[in-house]
Amino acid sequence: MQNEKQFTEVATLVGDRSRATMLWHLLDGRAFTATELSVLSEISAQSTSNHLSLLVKANLLSVEKLGRHRYYRFANDEVAHAIESLASLVGPQNTSKKIVQEPEGIKYARTCYDHLAGKIAVDIAASLVERKLLRLTSNQFALIKEIEKRFSMTVTAR
Known about the structure:
This protein is an alpha+beta fold.
């Protein structure tokens, strides 16, 4: 009985149009702010906040605070796989071909307060992590020790 109750609660959460739209957009693996999810879901910021709170409380999403922003993503791989499985039920006759446009202007490269932001900043960070020049620890980026030493020598040499 308890499993049935939990299943219906999760199904009800996922079945809501606004929350389903948010979950759909998270399928690409990126984390989004509440504002971004609000725009993508075409609902108010207050409504988005309420929906995200429910999804986090149900352990479907996790939230990470980075600087002034809170980023939402799937809580774990199982949730992502479950939503992906639901998405696979959408047949080709029900989908419209979405034309993906490369981000332009402010979406491509911008600054936010005192740091880089936008697609280019995300790509730079991913590249540095992939090349093992940066590491992600406790939801923060850190220079690897060897680079840190090299950087401080270069700075003091000038």
